[in-house]
Each structure stands twice: as C-alpha cells, then as structure tokens.
UniProtKB/TrEMBL annotation:
GO terms for biological process: innate immune response. This is non-specific serine/threonine protein kinase. Its EC number is 2.7.11.1. It is found in: Cell membrane. Residues 1-24 form the signal peptide. SMART domains: B_lectin. It catalyses: L-seryl-[protein] + ATP = O-phospho-L-seryl-[protein] + ADP + H(+); L-threonyl-[protein] + ATP = O-phospho-L-threonyl-[protein] + ADP + H(+). Residues 27-148 form the Bulb-type lectin domain. Residues 323-555 form the Protein kinase domain. Keywords: ATP-binding, Cell membrane, Disulfide bond, EGF-like domain, Glycoprotein, Kinase, Lectin, Membrane, Nucleotide-binding, Serine/threonine-protein kinase, Signal, Transferase, Transmembrane, Transmembrane helix.
Amino acid sequence: MTKMGMVLFAYLLLLNIFTTCGNGRNADVINTSSPLSIGQTLSSPGGVYELGFFGLDNSRSQYVGIWFKNITPQVVVWVANRDKPVTKTAANLTISSNGSLILLDAKQDVFWSTREAFTSNKCHAELLDTGNLVVIDDVSGKTLWQSFENLGNTMLPQSSVSYDIPRGKNRVLSAWKSNTDPSPGKFSLEFTPQVPPQGLIRRGLAPYWRSGPWAKTRFSGIPGIDESYLVDTVQFSSDGESLSLRLASSELAGNNRTKIFVATTVCLCISVILAFAAYKFWRHKAKQNELNPMFSNNSQEPQDVSGINFFGMHTIRTATNNFSSSNKLGQGGFGPVYKGKLLDGREIAVKRLSSSSSQGEEQLLIYEFLVNKSLDTFLFDPTLKLEIDWPKRFSIIQGIARGLLYLHRDSRLRVIHRDLKGTQYQDNTRRVVGTLGYMAPEYAWTGVFSEKSDIYSFGVLLLEIISGEKISRFSCGEEGKTLIAYAWDSWCETKAVDFLDQDIADSSHPSEVGRCVQIGLLCVQHRPVDRPNTLELLSMLTTTSDLPSPKQPTFAVHTRDDESISNDLITVNGITQSAIQGR
C-alpha cells in the first residue's frame, strides 16, 4: 500500500470512529450491550420520531424523551424521567438484568425505570414509527412494556386514554408543569371507571370538568357537539344532572294518546297484580306437597324415568328411621342431612330442604354415603392433610375433572353442577343457590350459568387443593390478598413453585404444581369465553401440551378487619343443585 493510501485509510478510519462516538449509533435498538448515552439518539425506522436526551431552557438538567425528528423547533411528545432529570454529564438508557428499561447516571444511580421486572435480560427496546417506545422479549417476540401505556402530556394517533377495569390501571394524560418543566402539572385527563364512562379533567385530585356519559359514538353534554344532534337539552350541575324534554302539544294531556296510555297502564298493573296473586297461590299449594318430582315421591313404588332413580317417600322414611335426630349428619343452608340405609344394605345420605324455606315444596336429594367424609375434612385439617401428599392431590384434581366431563358431555342428561366446592356444609341462609368465592361472576351477578360456570368453581377448588388454604378464610399480607390474587402473584413471580402447601412440598413435582396453578388461573378468568371447556380442561391436566397465558383475574381484596363481615356472607346457599338438560 502506498504512503498516500495509508494516510487516506487512516483518515477514513478516524472519521468513522468519531462519527460512531458522536450522535450516530451502529444499532437501531437498545439492549444490554448497546445502551443509549447522552449525545446519541435512536430513530424510528421511517425517521418520523427520535429518542434521546434533551435539555430545556439551557439548563444542565437532561431528560430522556421522544420528539418529532424533522420538526423545528423541537416538539417533545413523551418524557421518561419527568420528575427526576439527570444533572450529570454522563448517563445511559439501557436494559437491566431483569429485563427492565432503566436510566442510570455515571454513578449507576437509578433515575428512572419501567418498574416492571420480567426475569429476562434477553430483551431490547426499539422506537416504532407510531412514536411508541417498546420493550420486546428477544425469545418470544412479546411486547413486555410500551410507552403508550404510560402517557405523558401528548396523545399520538395510535395512543389512547383508557381505564383498564380488570387490571385496575388508569391510563391518564397529564399536563407539564410549565414549558421548561415536564414534571406533572395541575391538570390531568382520564376516563371514569363507571359504565358508561365519562371524560374527566382533574385539577390536582379535585374534579375540574367532566363530560356526559359515552353515548356509543360521542360523549354527551359537550358544547358544540350535542347541538348538532339529543332537540333535548342536558344541563350539568355540580350535584347532578337535569334533563329537559321538549314535547309537542299533541303529546300532552287531553288527547286520545294520553287516554290510550292511561288505559294501557291500568291494564298492565291489573295483569301484574293478578299474576302475583296466582304465583302466591301456587306457592301456597306447593308447600302442601311433600315430594320432589325428580328425586322422590309419595307413591309406594319408584317411578321409571330413564336416567334418574326415584325413591318412594316411605322408603326414605324407613331408611332414615323417619328422619331421626340420631341419623342426622349435619346442617346446611338447605336444611338437615340424614344418614340412611336401604333394604338392600346400601348406605345413603339424604338432603332434606328446610320446611321453612321459601323455595317451595319439600325436596329430597339422595346421595351415596361416602364413608371417608368430604375432601375438606382432610384438606383443611393440619394433621389429616399430611395424608394427601401431592401425588394424591394431583390424582384427586384429575378425578374431579373426569367427573365434570361425565356430567357435561358423557351423561345422557347434561348436568351443570353450579356449586362445586371443597367444603360440604355452610351456615344457614336463604339466598340464591351457590357459595360465594366458588361462584362464577356471571352467575353470581346475573344468575346465568353454563358449563363455564362449573369451570370457574373448579378453578377455585383446584387452587384450594394445591395450597391447602380455604378461599373464604385466606388473607395474605397487609393488603389482605385473596387466594386468587395470591395465586396470580405467585405464578407471575416464581411460576407458582411456592404456592403448594409447604407441609407436603417434599412430595411434589414443581413443574406439575406450576402447570396446575396456571390451569387454575385459566379457569377463573373473568370472561367465560377465556376459560377452557371441560374437554380442554381434562386434556390440560393429563398432557404436557403448551398452555395459554392467563390474564390477571378479577378479584376483590379484603382486609382482616373485614373478616367478621365476610364470614356472614360466605354462603349464599349450601344446597348443591344440578341443572339437568335433555340431550
């Protein structure tokens, strides 16, 4: 190589080094080996947005932010360390060992981070053309964190203000304190959690302005919007809403429409009264009857109906010694339970609905008597629980799932159990059928039940069997986490290896335990469509196929101070009723 060539090569090499060490970067992402330093920037693929350090009003304070790349003067749309600027001459934005995006100064002091730990350092951060800064798992490709979920003072075309009700997260837009201070100012914009939501501007913590409720395509009550549509006028005051309606004179009193309306209303009221009277008469007559047409009858011989066994009342009276108190096994919300013995030697348990119950005629449910008592006798006893180690508990879980599959799919009559739980008896009450804590939300709130209602109950029971804790008594930490909340945290933090009852931990297989907790969380999803069906459930428990990731379940946190109140609300009705549908 000639002398001139060597000089030219050295010049180009130095130029490349200085360019690299200046404002340019070799990589278009941020990771552990390629942090973003003061003086460097990261551009979105299309060159629309730019991420880097910036200062305001010639101050030494440095902020990490996103701005429009080719607009002058600079327009900042998002700031990371709004409350804590960097005052040193050196700082780095990088990925920490636990997968968080983190801002460090020269002394390695933390000035800002995403706060969420993902237990993985195989991640990188990149800036999208939407202006969204995202942290992505290199292995799964999943987005772990994004700036669009942590808004500043500017909304971009694909960002949004929202209220995430299931996770309890409020995505709020907050003003800068001033043009030279990006820390949160007095005003913020959010949506209220009520349904339908309202737009709300706060000044500090106090409400400053709110819109009307969301009306499918717009918020009502906003000047300049409503006038183009509601003839009607809505006036909002500090203590409520006043609704004024403009009516035509033909709709007022003294015309045929009014007379028709009055006559129709009177007829409807009379019909309702008559229907109510007929209903009360039917209930009175029903109480005179001592039979349940599905399970027992007053005749001397059992009825012959395919798929259902019937017993004559005299047979049940003989088997229980005429419901003798010496045969009484216990008392539930439905009434007493008696032990009986049929003429062929079979032992039975008879649930007898209380005669004072408002549920109508007397009902008798006949069960095979289980000598070993119920699962809760062992599960929640500090000594007996040692007899059911993890292999036995796992076998019990699979057995219950097979039983559900039979009721839902294999039986000639499809049966929805509705009150699957680990506790056999509860306190007396006269409320709707089911036990709080085990009932699916849609059944508890609306009375709608399905196969997925039983799946929810199974999920709660599954978590009880694994942990050895009863959902109605469990409370963890100062915030009083419920069993479901504790299971979610355990699965997120350690894949639930610490969720198993520690008294039997030596007999466990951590992978089986973690898989079962994940299945339990899938079963207690808030929406029925997110829960597995019974066939999918059994497949999950008997194979090692990949499982979907559960969403954070909806649960209510209560404190220990509320325990005396919650104990009175535990049982809605201890009776186990089955909804039977013909195939």
